[in-house]
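[job 0412] stage=complex_fold ligand=glycinamide ribonucleotide status=START
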Amino acid sequence: MLASGGGTNLQALLDAPEVKPWISLVVSDRPRAGALERARMACVEAVVLEPGGFATREEHDRALAETLRNSGIDVLLLAGYMRILGAPLVRSFPERILNVHPSLLPAFPGASAVRDALDWGAKVTGATVHMVDEEVDHGPIVLQEAIPILPGDDEAGLHARIQAVEHRLFPLGARLLVEGRLKVEGRRVHILGPGSDGDPGSAGTR
Ligand code: GAR
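[job 0412] stage=complex_fold status=DONE, emitting structure tokens
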């Protein structure tokens, strides 16, 4: 799991009994990220790789790739990781990287999605869990849920409502990925098994 911030999404994953056993490493680019403390509290290895310690973005990415390799990582979850992964790193985890983003992609990509939706005057925004490809906030969408923007909403209040939804969607997306239940066809992601495309059962929102 890669995280730069407070780590509420990491916490939601750690609190999900079907997902927790899969989380073996948390890497952050920021030594003060709350996510690191949450990882340590849950006895999950926590590593800091500060970009300032590397001459180039590529070198930082190579160190990250080596850390992941040394820990035998085969699935990456990005929760509020505020750095762009370079193409070689993305290519070494084909359809094995999930990101959670606080908007209904493709609307409002980027680092200030909640503020951008408010500034735009949008009436609806949302949360998206998607596969990561080589473009920013662009890969095939796995799960998505809309959230109304209410008159008088400010960024913090709206973000909190979006995060409440993220905390449901991200553990579900992670579970579907590690259980091998996501089949990608071009831009479309099919959910296999219970709650699949053909079975509106229990897998949840999609
Ligand atoms: C989450 O809301 C996530 O969607 C957002 O950062 C927050 C991290 O919160 N990500 C982005 O904006 C990526 N463009 P957390 O550290 O409490 O999980």
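Residues 155-178 form the longest helix (24 residues).
[job 0412] exit 0
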